[in-house]
Amino acid sequence: MGLYITMWIAMIAVIVVNVLSNTLPINGQTAADISDRLEVLFTPAGYVFSIWSLIYVLLVIWLITIYRKVKDNRFNGKVGILFIISCLFNIAWLFSWHYEQFILSIIVMFFLLFTLIAIYKQYKNNETGFSERFPFSFYLAWLSVATIANVSYVLKYNGVDLGISEVVGSLVLVGVAVILGYLAVAISKDIFFTLVIVWALVGIAVKTDDATMQYGTIVLTIILIIVALIHYMRMKTKRLV
Question: Would you tell me the crossing angle of helices 191-207 and 134-157 to the nearest 10 degrees?
Fold first, then answer.
């Protein structure tokens, strides 16, 4: 039960720090203030970031619904420890970003990403309930996009172009996100992960003023939707046979 209480403390700390980061804000600037200083093509429109609220609500529901498992000693303690670590990395990322320690922010975000992957892998493909993988489908998918966006921002901030135009580079990153969205359905049978990727990509297409980036993102997103739905429907059909 001590682990469970610590998980709640960690979750509350994450929510409090996130609220303060926008209301205080930390270091006198919000995350959006920093992000808006550079015109980075792989950045979703502002409304897309509202998904953080949904993620935190799902995590709170997850904490509530796992109580019975914890009480009956059926809860995987490794997941609990990893969850606490993920909360610490979440908070660390906020401080590193708000204090413009961008290289550090990438390192911390990758650690957060790897921690979420570790949590995600603790659940089987059929463990998709609120007390199981469901909340982490949203969290991991969004963090995957956020990590790509963070790297893209820091590269531009430091003037790194990798020898290609920003539009081409950004479309490559969109392609990476599309591949992740497809693999989630193909390997993990996780349509919710894919939906979050689509949500983010639509937001990128909405925000950009570059026609090539916009149309390219739309086309790749449509391809993802079609391919993912075909694979998902085939998977459903096999289950019924």
Answer: 30
